[in-house]
Amino acid sequence: MSHPRRSRPVRVLAHASVAPRIMAEFNRRQFLSVAAALGGVGLLSACGGDGDGNGATPGADATGRATGGELESQLSIYTWGDYDSPDVLERFTEELGPEIRLDSFNSNEEMIAKLVAARGTSGYDIVVPTGQFIPQMVENDLLEPLNKDLIPNLEHMDEAFLSMAWDPENQWSICKAWGTTGFVYDNTVITRELKTWNDFLDAAQNEASGRTSVLDDPAELTGLYFWANGIDWTTEDEGDLQAAEDFLVGELAPHIAAFDSYPGGSAIPQGTHALMQVWNGDARIGIMESPDPDRWTWVLGAPVTQLWMDNWCIAKGAPNIEAAHAFINFVLAPEQVIDQVDYIGYHTGAKDVESMAEEAGLEMLDLVFFTPEQIETMKEGEVNSAQQRIVDIWNKMKAAAGA
Amino acid sequence: MRAPRFLLAIPAWAWLAAFFVLPVATVVYFSFGYKPGIFGTHATDVLSLDRYREALSPTFFTTFTNTLRVGVLGTLLCLVIGIPMAYWMAVKVSPGKRAFLLALVIVPFWTNFLVRTIGWQVILAPEGWLSGMLQALGLRENPLAILYTRSAVLLGVVYNYLPLMILPLFVAFDRVGPAMREASKDLGANRWRTFTRVTLPMARPGIIAGILLVFIPLMGDYITATVLGGARGNMVGQLVASQFQAAQNWALGSAMAVLLIIVIAVTVLVGAAIAYVVTWPLSRARRLRLADLEGLPEKVR
Amino acid sequence: MSAQAGAVELTGVTKRFGDAVAVDRLDLRIEPGEFIALLGPSGCGKTTTLRMIAGFEQPDEGEIRISGESVAGVPPHKRHVNTVFQNYALFPHMNVAENVAYGLQQTRTPKAEIRERVAEALDMVQMRAFADRKPSQMSGGQQQRVALARALVNRPSVLLLDEPLGALDRQLREEMQIELKLLQSRVGTTFVFVTHDQHEALSMGDRIAIMRGGKIEQLDTAAAVYAQPASAFVAGFVGQQNFLAGTARTDGVIESGPIRLRSERAGQHVAPGPVRAAIRPEYVSLAPVADLTAGAGHGTENTVVGRLASIAHLGETMQYVVEVDTGHETTSLLSRIPTPAAPNVHVDDEVVASWTPGCILVFSDPNAGPAIPPDLTTVPSTTPAHPPR
Ligand SMILES: Nc1ncnc2c1ncn2[C@@H]1O[C@H](COP(=O)(O)OP(=O)(O)OP(=O)(O)O)[C@@H](O)[C@H]1O
Ligand SMILES: [Mg+2]
Fold it and tell me: Domain limits at A238?
């Protein structure tokens, strides 16, 4: 499963008034997004070692190595590309000392493969996995438990984004950012109002046939069907999976124009498609950069949709474990939160972040913050035995769409 | 004292072993393994051919057919466009301008492959500047609808791979040299016959190099096709990558990679065989051997 | 075929490359069936002339006629002319037989006829047994024969050969010269043969065209070019010469330092003024001073005393260098005498050099020397002043 959704700085947030021009479109962000979507580049670096890591002992020792002692002089963070405000990173070094070294990955799998191969000698201190990968990482002994005494700023986090299913006691992880999935449509082409995933699927097979894109990600694709049909999207039931395959491959595929994880990068600004499944932050960028933002309507997936969450974790064998704790505590502080939101365009899980963002004058916040009722409809994913099956469905759908 | 010959060959063998034999052998080995569980990528304690059975699915065939179509059409297009361009540069252009033109051919390589391809995505978008310009000039009524079609894929392929075709062709045509062409004309062959009977056959190594240089990487490339073809640009390379990445099933991915290598090799051989069969009657007609001259009287005046 | 078939006529042909004039208002008429040798120093325009006849270059001015017809604008493949290139230019991807058949295939000759004519052409150059070889599998001489067969098989009106023997070693070259000449007389094709080797030109050409600076300096038989060179350049380029600069007196005697020359050459008119005299080494004979007849020596016409500076054995001839002190400098005289008739002289001997008055050539323009001096390694015709001894 790859969620390379954050290879985008959202500096445009503060400069939304700048008229987007075509050439400005062709920028680093767009490149990074496609590079990330196509992934794979980093795969080879992740190879090596024949360990399947299955026999590793689960990290039972939950006391943690960090004691709150003196900070080391360095800190190494392995995260998604361009996923932290440089201002925040600079301030950390200025105020607390450790120099930060950043390294980036394109998918959870890539990151995990690297940690597995290194067996605790990766040299990374902080890693940022997506929630559903955390049990796998814990089981494979890839993470250090957190010493929450050293992270007092945890109190600034919104309870709603703590105690997630994959780590009920936040023993291993703390929310870094979260987002959800919905869709954007061109209201000059689709003149009726679309409200649910079922509307999405209907429009895709009618007005928007041949002008629809879906996320290039197996779980989000099968999710599309499960969310629309009231099926738990983490299902491992072969009947459900077969039904998803029948629909996606047999019925939806011919109407799909592209598998695009980042329509906000170019498809929305350039009006390439009429209907696009899209992550909220990406939708927001796309609409803000469109020469005609009113043309685009954002719809949060309904009746249910996805919740993905990336998390601060500490890698097993982290050489700078004190600095790592200090950093996590630092970024959770309210003073840093708004810079992070401004930079990445996603909710960080902090309390009152919405009102801070409003004060700061950030735009289109309805695509960043959601009501508790909406959040109620968002479900986390899971890495389970259906993984190979949904990848196969994804590949079959692509083959059918490309035939 | 001269170093024995095998000593000189060591770097070459080491290079081959390190960068070709070992990786391929690893992939082949993995392909007989299996995925041991949700969180494992591969295991090789039990070896079987099961991954190959899984790999040879209808999805693989559909995707592979699509890939092969892009590969063959793209290579042919590059060849058809590349031959006259390379010939023109090697034969008609003065040596001074030649360096400049070669530089122009190579310049796109200074930019990242992906950036170049996305550049075309921006140009070809329905609301991109090309579309806008065509509409403003009254050449089109509707927005350009080429992005995410097979034509866009082929356009991208030609753009990205043409230099790989032109460079070996240029070198080959250049090496034929004017003396051979003049000899041919001197013997009564016009320009076309000179081209088909002297220049082209003599440039054959370059043509083969160009075809392989384009075809083989093209078969593994899915960036060009995905960026410009969208759903129509489904390539087998991505299918293989999806097994390594999304499915975390290195065993199945390896089996697919091995199949891909085999099928590419077979395609190249089949292509060579077709080329041979097609040109055979022609070369047969022109062949002249000592045996053909036997029995003719010696008549020296 | 008309009586003109095989004739080549160049009238006022000029070819420029940028500012450089490669061929300069050249006139040349070659008779059908003739073997013409184009001889001249490097860069004098031989290849350019040939290329214009073949059609690879277009003249800037003037006209070329082949077999009586103007070929202006006619591309090479439509001219009934074939070329044997200096590097042979055999097609490496074809075997010998296919190379030879190439020209016939272009004219859509029936296959049976192609086979016959290829066999015939290969027999002509004794290469039939090599029919299956690729050019890379043959020696230079063999390739040369194939190139010849490949050109002749087309039965061209005119065959152009651009230094075809240049890449061969001396012995093979001499054999090929004889073969080529015999071949030409057999097939009767007009041959235009470019060379910068005077022996080759003299031994092969029915007539020899001596070129210089894009022009033809003299066009005549070997004997005429040798005996009656039209200019000091020709005199120096064909064979070797002792050149002596001097002044012609009103009585016809030429004074060159202490040397007095009187030409008794028939038809030679010597006008008073600065001149240049030329005597071939083979006309200079030597004798010991002791043999000096009364009245000879310094001041005597067509005789001079000097010191024998060197003796070289060239096989059938002996070559001597005699140094004559002219007061302020030393002039060297070269003499060649058939070995059986060699005089009994030694290095550093005082010797008398003399020559027959009938063989002195006089050129009135004293500056008109050879563009390149005849073989400097053997003939220093004048050397700078010796340091005082
Ligand atoms: N293609 C060309 N471009 C420019 N100058 C040329 C070209 N071909 C010949 N020349 C010039 O024209 C002159 C005559 O050249 P040409 O090749 O005819 O000489 P050549 O008599 O054949 O000499 P060589 O005995 O060295 O072959 C030379 O000064 C040469 O530099
Ligand atoms: Mg020449």
Answer: 179-306+381-401
